[in-house]
Specification:
By secondary structure, the chain is of the alpha+beta class. The protein is built from seven helices and four strands; from the N terminus they run ααααβααβββα. The chain is elongated, with a radius of gyration of 18 Å. The two termini are 20 Å apart. Bound molecules: FE2/S2 (inorganic) cluster (FES).
Length: 160
Amino acid sequence: MSVEIQFNEVAARIEPLLTNYEGQQGILISLLQDAQTEFGYLPEDVVGIIADRLDLSPVQIYGVASFYSQFYFEPRGRNVIKVCIGTACHIRGSSAILERLEKELDVKDGETTPDMEFTLETVNCVGCCGLAPVIVANERVVRKKEHQKVVARLKSQGGK
Ligand code: FES
């Protein structure tokens, strides 16, 4: 399934966001956040348009955005499953969980399924080590007894 967005559509959707910040200084991060909310990631054309409007180069934008782990430059799945591989989770078996999810979804860490339904990622400590091993699905911690069913549950919910 192609998720490529045509330049004209990108330009039309980014314009209101740019207008919101017109005449303001120090808006880059906020603008990138808004753009990512709009598109789900930061397409190359979006970076180009923002760079042009702020009189920066795309390289400068990538330089700033790649500093923050919150920004993505590739399309992501409708559901994002994160497996914590921090120390506490690692000790309690997160590698086996990751392996099982990689098999179930037929993707590797950091990849998205071809139908754009699922992105599988690893993260380092999400701050609830007492619950280790931790899986976070669409920004919600999955209860341990639900671990085995997380993919099926998300599929049955048709998303978030
Ligand atoms: S190490 Fe996984 S939540 Fe802290």
